[in-house]
Amino acid sequence: MFEEGNILYFDPFYFKNGNPAKRKYFLVLKVIEKKALVAVLPTRTASIPRGELVESGCLELPEIGLNCYVFPKQEAVTNCGKSFDFNTYLYGAFIDDYEVSLMEELYPNEGIDYWVWGKLKPAYFESVLDCFRLSSSVKRKYKRIL
Asked: Which helix (H) or strand (E) holds 128?
């Protein structure tokens, strides 16, 4: 389940901040001693200022504290050839850490509570990590971990 580079799909995903649960993708960025993991929740919402939009790859706008990695729609991003139906955005501000034991308690059954949607192609995974590591807007604790 929790392997670096895995894209998981939760139905529903329970947010730590108490927002209503909903279907959500989840990219595992780093596993820390099987106790915790660092992940980012992809979204199809573009929160990028007009004129700064990128089709694919990393976008860093330090003047407004924005860091984002874009997966273009219909481009195979997993080893098994899966793609997103929409442009998909990974925001450095959405990186968070999760306790493995709590996640296993909330989502005990693969195929019911969650699905392993695919594993990100190595080149994409390294690009995502580099995008976050080099960002001035990603929290230092996550940059060190990544």
From this structure: helix 122-133
Q: How far apart are CA 32 and CA 145, in angstroms?
A: 8
Taking 80 as the threshold, does the pLDDT of residue 55 lie above it? Answer: no
Model pLDDT, residue 88: 92
Query: Looking up tokens 């990393």, which residue turns up?
Result: 58
| 8 A C-beta contact, residue 133 and residue 143 | yes
Q: Is the torsion defined by CA of 24, 4, 71, 141 positive or negative?
A: positive
Structural domain contains residue 1: no
**Running DSSP on this structure, what letter comes out for residue 72?**
P
- What tokens does 55 get? 């089709």
Mean pLDDT, rounded, for 27-53: 84
pLDDT average, residue stretch 40-46:
86
Domain that holds residue 39: 6-145
Q: How many domains does the chain have?
A: 1
Question: How far, rounded to the nearest angstrom, does the alpha carbon of residue 8 sit from its chain's CA centroid?
Answer: 9
- Phi/psi region, residue 65 (left: phi>0; alpha: psi -120 to 50; beta: rest), is left
Question: Residue 76: pLDDT above 80?
Answer: yes
What is the Cα gyration radius of the chain? 15
